[in-house]
Write a structure and sequence with these properties.
CATH topology: Nuclear Transport Factor 2, Chain: A
Helix content: 25-40%
Strand content: 35-45%
Mean pLDDT: 86
Number of helices: 3
Structural class: alpha+beta
Low-confidence stretches: 17-30
Largest sheet: 6 strands, mixed
CATH class: Alpha Beta
Length: 161
């Protein structure tokens, strides 16, 4: 092989490798967008199932140990599982919660961070609705091809911000 044909061969190989890399990049971007969309769907569905008091639908987003939660109304970190939510559902509370300004940040193949605001109301049995808008951060993990809620952090908004 002459040096000219070796140079042409090398150019073809490098061009081919670059073409494959460039073609693969949109697939990766689409994959990340698909993951973000799947997580957003799971997060919205979680609150839809909670608000409709749909225990089996809500449970599909939790593993048996449930998830941890910081809430500005509590003095500690709590672990919430289906036993807690089934008690809430059975007590007759009315729940109307959703996520506004939802954003998803994909942190890897199996972890995502959701941010936004939890807005709406919770009405205790025989009580008046308690309306709130709280800053929300959620951690989701993919387990056996399903997105599962792992942690929630709720914070009061700073009225002076």
């Amino acid at each position: 092989m002459t040096s000219h044909s070796h140079s042409v061969f090398r150019t073809i190989i490098i061009s081919s490798v670059l073409a494959v890399l460039v073609l693969a990049m949109p697939a990766r971007a689409n994959s990340a967008n698909d993951v973000a969309s799947d997580v957003a769907t799971a997060a919205n569905d979680l609150y839809a199932k909670l608000s409709s008091l749909d225990s089996p639908g809500f449970a599909k987003h939790l593993q048996s140990e449930g998830f941890s939660e910081f809430n500005p109304d509590w003095n500690d970190l709590r672990q919430l599982d289906m036993k807690v939510f089934n008690g809430i559902f059975a007590a007759g509370a009315k729940i109307d919660l959703r996520i506004s300004d939802l954003k998803v940040r994909v942190l890897g193949d199996a972890t995502a961070l959701v941010t936004g605001y939890r807005v709406g109301s919770i009405t205790p049995p025989n009580g008046k609705p308690i309306y709130s808008k709280l800053a929300l951060t959620m951690v989701w993990s993919k387990v056996d091809k399903l997105w599962m809620l792992k942690h929630v952090h709720l914070s009061n908004l700073n009225p002076n911000a």
